[in-house]
Amino acid sequence: MTATLKVALLGCGTVGGEVARYLDTHADDLAARIGARVELAGIAVRRADLPRPGVPEHLITTDAHELALRPDVDVVIELIGGVDTAGELIRTAFSHGASVVSANKALIAAQGTSLHEAAAAAGADLYYEAAVAGAIPLLRPLCESLAADRITRVFGVVNGTTNFILDKMEVLGACYQEALKEAIQLGYAEADPTADVEGHDAAAKAAILAGIAFTTRVRIEDVHREGITAITSADITAAKALGYSVKFLAVCDRGADDRSVRVRVHPAMIPAGHPLASVRGANNAVLVEADAAGQLMFYGPGAGGAPTSSAVLGDLVAVGRNKLAGVTGFGSANYAGLVLRPMAEVSTRCYVRLEVTDAPDVLASVATVLARHGVPIETSGRSGCSLALVTHQATDGALAAAVAELRGLDHVHEVASLIRIEGTDPAP
Ligand code: NDP
Ligand code: HSE
After folding, report:
1. Is the same domain home to 145 and 238?
2. 51 near 76, Cβ under 8 Å?
3. Model pLDDT for residues 97-111, shown as the tens digit of each residue
4. How remote is the CA of residue 409 from the centroid of ligand 2, in Å?
5. Do 44 and 30 belong to one domain?
6. Is 205 among the residues known to form the active site?
7. Each residue of 163-211: pLDDT tens digit?
């Protein structure tokens, strides 16, 4: 085989290190699958002197820009993360016609539209399967296999770190900080783990997923975001007692009017028997509902160097084949122009825990406030000064207004928990 595919690797950390090693150990198979031998042109890092076992030392450089600019490079793999520098490097790659593979959801959510335009103008590919749900083939199935279907809902666990933490808290009774520390050590977390636990990472993934699923532009600012930092062991115990599991979900729905979409990420209680309740460790699972296909579930490792490298390398094979054939693959399609609806209009059931005065008429006054805002109580339970409620379906706007009023009641010391309940009713 004489053809070669010259590849520049930007970033050699958790994911990039695995990619570099795999390119070496699986070179013959990759060549056979692409139709050209992959030749690494260089590997850009920040700290040249860091030991990187199994990574060819002579290829290391600290000049990522020079590497992305090299005219003989066919494909640039961007695995440095962050938005500004990574975006500039990708545009540099397009400037000489190189295709790009990335795992960078923060960047794609922020600049996906303009990057796709730059790729199209350059006649190059921009693939980022690894940006959402790690190893799980999800974006390509949405873009290609389901291209003719009408998707109504995409719903699931899309952040490995937070699932790992919640799972450890639920199954082993681990404490939040310990579980987070372990997730960082295992390479699941972002460079700044705030992105995971405050939901920025999941919000970026939800924006990408909703954009593809509903062929409409979804900006990260359009995504309602709440992280998991307010979830306590007491919430997890309460959920268990009610037959639920606490999961950190991304929910993207097409509105019943077919002209709108709602996109949100937040913790939620889901029934213990629901398929998403059994997602363990750093795995992800995404349910896709489509008119003709019905409900599909995508499940597997959602984070970690080796699993993510599988998706990156799959993209490399795809864009490499396209290069050799002189074609480009799928780009972005956001022709639908759906309207993004606010969280206040989303309707869910909800678990609410209040710390209250130990007085007999507290439940009645709480129920009166909730009823006035159109939030009926389904069940309630009292344990000392803790009053736990499950509400019927109500809009988030109504719930927020009711909670604001509850906070002002003399008998209510604290609204200690407010966790939406999902997976029990059809999407409104
Ligand atoms: P790491 O922090 O482990 O690695 C980042 C790499 O980029 C390091 O090698 C670093 O160099 C290098 N780097 C950073 N800035 C520069 C720069 N300006 N110039 C040259 N090199 C630079 O990150 P991950 O491997 O975990 O993540 C990479 C990307 O993959 C991110 O976009 C992340 O969101 C995404 N991703 C990560 C997953 C995971 O499970 N970890 C899963 C899915 C996606 P040095 O080594 O010298 O510090
Ligand atoms: N930090 C991310 C997660 C990596 O935990 O899901 C995979 O995108």
Report:
1. yes
2. no
3. 999 999 999 999 999
4. 41
5. yes
6. yes
7. 999 999 999 999 999 999 999 999 999 999 999 999 999 999 999 999 9
